[in-house]
Amino acid sequence: MSTETPDTAGAGDAPADGQPLVRVDGLEKYFWENNSLVDRLLGDDPVAVRAVDGVSFDIQEGETLGLVGESGCGKSTTGETLLRLQEPTAGRVEFDGQNVYDLEGSDLTEFRRDAQVVFQDPFSSLDPRMTIGEIVQQPLAVHDVGTEQERERRVRELLERVGLSVEQLDRYPHEFSGGQRQRIGIARALALDPEFLVLDEPTSALDVSVQAQVLNLLDDLQAEFDLTYLLISHDLSVIRHICDRVAVMYLGEIVEIGPAADVFEDPKHPYTEALLESVPRASTDEQDREIETLSGDVPSPRDPPSGCRFRTRCPKVIPPEDIDIDRAAFRAIMDLRERIEGRDISLETVGEDGQFEFEDGRLAVGDRSEFVATLKERVLDRDLPARDDAIVEEALAELAASDWEAAAERLRDEYETVCERQNPPLSGTGTETRAGAGTGTGTGTGMEKAGPSSTSDGSSADEDHPVACHLFAESGHRAPESDSR
Ligand code: SF4
């Protein structure tokens, strides 16, 4: 099938040698709450919801970059913002060397032709009042491409290419299965002969049996039409199926990026490790394996944790240097601290009916040490070293007087982790630099993030940021005592 639409030839020339087709640099997208006129009159300060918070990556022509992470981590907002479906808060996106946020007039129209999107939900993304012929033809009509006959011919070609019959042209979306509707969405995205597609969870609404068909179709179309993809998915198996490189997102930030084989076989970031660990294994040999699960929920992007954003869930969160405690025990104490800081423990329901009672916020009925022991049994699932056990009991005793702040302070004083003061820069240990990150040929750790990878005195950035634990393991450096910022 010819992919030339009547007058789209020449739209978006190939990028210069070595230039990525897409370059995202420090992209931020914040949504604002409490930002209405009434809020301002009432003196409420606007609150930023940091959906995307300083994301940088490149995508080379013909490459598929996977963007993976849990729901709500900012993947789709990244895709929409780089396509300029949403305006950014800060940062720059270059497409074919041009800043897309500076484009106007015919340049913007050309970008809109060259960069298309396939949406997640094939049920809601198609207008139920239009036939599929009209749906696929719509972008051609909007961009005034070709004559009526040329458009109709183009629609027929596209439908056949995505595996649908031209006999179905006059049917409506509800007459098709989920997989067929996604094929219609793909045909619509291809109508203007784009160079770049953002595939936003393209298979997550489909049955497993259909997912592979759609992924194989996307793979074939990429080779046939020289397409470049950003594939957004929470599903690691989907990412693994067709991606050349993978970027892992957590709470608005990219925490790891590198060639797919490296990231899957040798993940560096504890979050990536945990994501991979959580994938069910078919092998019976691995059924009894210990899974290092993530604790807690993803924090709110309204108030992300200080330092490393993953610290509230990280199984490898770093204990203070002077404390000798195993990783799991320290994680359990940090989880307890999180719950106390979030006042997320129901004190009134501790013990049997009538065993403990509170009046005016204090334990009025029941023995205080018994209360502490019962509460500890409920909120800690493991034994601690004697010293730490005593500290935790002191903190829990403060809760007998409902003094949440004193309880939190006791744990904070004792167990402040370097991870809450510093955010690892994720650069510097490997050979995959910002400039070479998009090549997919990095031979280092596979980590990258915009920003300097060395300091003025020539030391590597990870020496400056010892909290980059996952980089540290490789470089053999040791974390200094503390380094507040
Ligand atoms: S910096 Fe700390 S919390 Fe963040 S990933 Fe590394 S060990 Fe975990």
From TrEMBL:
Q: SMART domains, per this entry?
A: AAA
Statement: the UniProt record of this protein carries the keyword Transport: yes
Kindly give the PROSITE patterns that the UniProt entry links to this protein.
Answer: ABC_TRANSPORTER_1 (PS00211), ABC_TRANSPORTER_2 (PS50893)
The protein's matches in InterPro entries, at most eight in alphabetical order, are given as: AAA+_ATPase, ABC_transp_ATP-bind, ABC_transporter-like_ATP-bd, ABC_transporter-like_CS, Oligopep_ABC_C, P-loop_NTPase
Q: From its record, what is one biological process in GO terms?
A: transmembrane transport
List, as start-end ranges, the regions of compositional bias called Basic and acidic residues.
283-292, 475-485
Where is composition skewed (Low complexity) in this entry?
A: 1-18
Write the record's keywords in alphabetical order, separated by commas.
ATP-binding, Nucleotide-binding, Transport
Q: Work out whether the entry's keyword set contains Cell division.
A: no
Which residue range or ranges hold the ABC transporter domain?
22-276
- Positions of region (Disordered): 1-20, 280-307, 419-485
Cross-referenced Gene3D superfamilies:
P-loop containing nucleotide triphosphate hydrolases
Q: Which GO terms describe its molecular function?
A: ATP binding; ATP hydrolysis activity
Protein name per Swiss-Prot or TrEMBL: Oligopeptide/dipeptide ABC transporter ATPase
Q: What family is this protein classified in?
A: Belongs to the ABC transporter superfamily.
